[in-house]
Amino acid sequence: MSWLAAALEWQSRAVVGRHLRVYLRNWYTAFLPPAMEPLTMLLAFGAGLGGYVMSLTWQGRPVEYMTYVAPGLLAYATFMTAIFRSLFGAFIRMRYQRTWEGQLTTQVELTHVVWGEVLWAGLLATMYVVIVSAVLVVIHWAGLLALDLRWLPGVWPITIVAGCGFAALGLCFTAIVPTIDHMNLPVFLLVLPMGLLSSTYFPLEHPVLVALNAGNPLYHLAQVFRGILIGGPVAGLGGEMKRLIGRRQLRSEIVKRFDRIRAALVRPLGPPDRVESP
Questions:
Q1: CA 131 to chain centre
Q2: Residue-wise pLDDT tens digits, 168-192
Q3: Which terminus, N or C, of the chain has the lesser number of Cβ atoms within 10 Å?
Q4: Cα separation of 91 and 85, whole Å?
Q5: pTM listed for this prediction
Q6: Where does 142-216 have alpha helices with state H?
């Protein structure tokens, strides 16, 4: 079975459906905190800091600060939702709830479980981006943003693809960390630096930071969203999306890493947690 074709098979869709049912059961606790984070950031940086930074230059043209931040928040919501879902949510289901072990006793194989986690994280990230987009529409109507709303639905397909790429990155760490306490290493050494140093809230001009951003997929996603919603050069969209989607070797490496821990899934891993994680 091809690892890529497994994403389209019914077993992967069944895994996504299971996660969706659990999520809808606990939506009031799982939905509000992640959805409110980018909105809080928009008010803090856009309305708060924006009062001191009236405008800046992007792609050689003056842009209002809040208009600059808004597309970046869509990219930030995509990144944080997908990668945290694949880090903590997937680890809890694998290690403590033993959900993966139960799925592997059926017709679902490990490749389907991995793809189910990736697709679910991408779907959830898109849901949050749609909510933030609705808020941006209201703020635009209030005259506080200058976005081209005609192209706003165009960022959603890009969001689900990028979310799947970020989820795949998170699963690489889920496959190798021994305990949930070790999640602090990728969070503080990779996730937070990628989120803060990605020109999401402010443009970075230092040559070293500019060079580092060349390998930061969140930076490229934010630039693509700005080019679509503000108006600017998006000719490099194909190259940006190649970085976001990742290469075949990355997906193959994820499956190989999870193959190594297949045996660990069938060993007793301690008392199962009865609380289901969305």
A1: 15
A2: 999 999 999 999 999 999 999 999 9
A3: N
A4: 9
A5: 0.81
A6: 155-174, 184-186, 192-196, 207-213
